[in-house]
Design goal:
The termini are close together. About 40% of the residues lie in helices and about 15% in strands. The chain folds into two domains: about 1-170 and about 355-375, Rossmann fold; about 180-355, Rossmann fold (3-Layer(aba) Sandwich). Strand 5, helix 4 and strand 6 form a beta-alpha-beta unit. The radius of gyration is 22 Å and the shape is globular. The chain has helices at about 15-30, 65-75, 75-85, 125-140, 150-160, 180-190, 210-220, 245-250, 265-275, 290-295, 305-310, 325-335, 340-350, 355-375, and strands spanning about 1-5, 35-40, 55-60, 90, 105-110, 140-145, 200, 230-235, 255-260, 275-280, 300-305, 315-320. It has 14 helices and twelve strands.
Length: about 400
C-alpha cells in the first residue's frame, strides 16, 4: 500500500494531538517496512517523520498556524499532489478531511468537544468545527476515534456506522516507565518540588476544570486538613481561565506551584516524584496524562468521565468533577490511605502495559488495508504495479 499522511496542521502547541501523532507514526515505522508512506509536512511538522527507507516527506511552504491558508491548500493543491502520487489512502489527523479527496480519507477523531457543553470555543469556531466533524463523519472511508467513548459519541451524535470505525488508542512511549531514583531526585531538586505533592498535568483550558479543583483544595485548607501542596503543569491558553488570579483570590499562593514547560523526557521523573495525580477534567478524548502517570508508578485519582474510566479502569479512584465536595473527599481519602496508593500504583503499572505499540499498530494497518481493499473492489481495473502503485 502507498499511504499518505497529512501532517500540515501539526504544531507542538496542540499538545496531546502532537504527542499522539508522534508516537503513532514512530511506532508504525518500527513495525511496518512493507508499505510506503508519503508525509505532507511543514517546516514545523517535518520532525514527526521517521528517517526510514519507506517514509518520504514532501515539505509544503505554508504556515500551519494560519488555518485558512492550510485549509485552502488541503482542498486544492494538496489533492493534485495526492493524485500524482496515486496514493491508496490518505490519513488525516485533525478531525477533518478534504471536501474532495484524490485518495480515500482515513480520519483520526480525537474527541467531540464542539458538541459538548464544556469549553471556551467561540460560537463561530464551534460552528466551524462541528461542520468539519460532520463532513468527516459523512464522507470519510474510515474514522479512527482514539477511544471507545469517542466512537460511541460518533454513533450517537453523528450516526456513524460501527463498521466505518476502528479505535486507534494512544500509544505509550517507552520513555513512560518507572524512572531511576536518581532521575526522580534530580527532577525534585531542579524544580524545587516538595517531598509530597499532588500533581495535575493539563493545559489551562476551561474544560480542564482547574477552578473546581482549586476550590476543593481551598475548602480542605479552610477546614484545617493537612493537605499536600498542589503542583500544576500546564500552559495558559487564549480565552482560558486566569488560574493565577484564582490562586491569589483563594489565598493559596504558598500551596500551589506552577511548573514551566518541561522536556518530554523529564515528565516520567515528575510523575514518579508526585505522591498522586489528580485529574479533574470535565471532558477528554482519552486522558493521556492518566496513562502516562500510571506507567510511571504514580497513583491516580480522577474525574469519573467515560474516556478516563475506559483507559484507567480499576487502576484509579474516581470523583464527580462537577462536585467540589466530592473532589475534596477523593483527594483526602487517597492522601490518608497508604495501602490504597500502593494498590493503585501496582494496578496502574499493569494497566499501562495494554497501551504499548504492538496491538495499536496492528489495528491501524488493518484499517488501512480494509479501506484499500474496499476501494479496489469498487474500482475495476485498479491494480498494483510491481512497485505497489495503483
Amino acid at each position: 500500500m502507498r499511504i499518505g499522511l497529512n501532517l500540515l496542521h501539526a504544531v507542538p502547541e496542540i499538545g496531546g494531538g502532537w504527542n499522539y501523532i508522534s508516537n503513532l507514526v514512530s511506532a508504525v515505522a518500527e513495525v511496518d517496512e512493507a508499505n510506503e508512506y508519503v508525509a505532507y509536512v511543514t517546516d514545523v511538522s517535518a520532525s514527526l517523520v521517521p528517517s526510514r527507507p519507506n517514509f518520504r516527506s514532501v515539505r509544503i511552504p505554508i504556515k500551519s498556524r494560519i488555518r485558512i491558508h492550510r485549509v485552502v491548500f488541503e482542498n486544492t493543491a494538496l489533492q493534485t499532489l495526492v493524485w500524482r502520487e496515486r496514493l491508496d489512502c490518505m490519513h488525516w489527523f485533525a478531525n477533518a478531511r478534504g471536501l474532495i479527496n484524490a485518495a480515500p480519507a482515513v480520519v483520526t477523531i480525537y474527541d467531540l468537544q464542539p458538541f459538548v457543553p464544556h469549553g471556551q470555543l467561540s460560537r463561530a469556531k464551534r460552528a466551524f468545527l462541528r461542520w468539519q466533524l460532520r463532513q468527516a463523519a459523512n464522507g470519510a472511508a474510515m474514522l479512527l476515534p482514539m477511544s471507545q467513548a469517542t466512537a460511541r459519541g460518533l454513533q450517537e451524535v453523528l450516526g456513524v456506522e460501527a463498521e466505518r470505525m476502528k479505535v486507534i488508542s494512544p500509544i505509550l512511549e517507552s520513555v513512560f516507565a518507572v524512572p531511576a531514583a536518581e532521575a526522580v531526585e534530580r527532577c525534585r531538586r531542579r524544580y524545587a518540588l516538595p517531598q509530597r505533592f499532588w500533581l495535575y498535568v493539563a493545559h489551562l483550558y476551561l474544560h480542564k476544570n482547574h477552578s473546581r479543583l482549586l476550590t476543593a483544595y481551598a475548602r480542605l485548607k479552610s477546614e484545617g486538613a493537612e493537605v499536600w501542596p498542589l503542583v500544576l503543569r500546564g500552559d495558559a491558553q487564549p480565552g482560558g481561565p486566569d488560574i493565577s488570579a484564582l490562586v491569589r483570590e483563594l489565598g493559596l499562593e504558598k500551596d500551589v506551584f506552577f511548573l514551566p514547560s518541561l522536556p518530554r523526557e523529564e515528565l516520567p521523573a515528575l510523575y514518579a516524584a508526585a505522591s498522586a495525580l489528580v485529574f479533574a477534567s470535565l471532558y477528554e478524548g482519552a486522558g493521556i496524562p492518566v496513562l502516562e502517570a500510571q506507567a510511571c508508578g504514580c497513583p491516580v485519582v480522577a474525574a469519573n468521565i467515560e474516556a478516563v474510566r475506559e483507559f484507567a479502569g480499576e487502576a484509579a479512584h474516581y470523583f464527580d468533577p462537577l462536585n467540589v465536595n466530592d473532589i475534596a473527599r477523593a483527594m483526602m481519602g487517597l492522601a490518608a490511605d497508604n495501602v490504597a496508593r500502593r494498590q493503585l500504583r501496582d494496578r496502574g503499572l499493569e494497566r499501562a502495559r495494554r497501551f504499548r505499540s504492538g496491538p495499536v499498530v496492528h489495528d491501524l494497518l488493518a484499517a488501512y488495508e480494509q479501506v484499500v481493499t474496499r476501494t479496489r473492489a469498487h474500482t475495476p481495473g485498479r491494480k498494483r504495479n510491481s512497485h505497489g502503485r495503483a
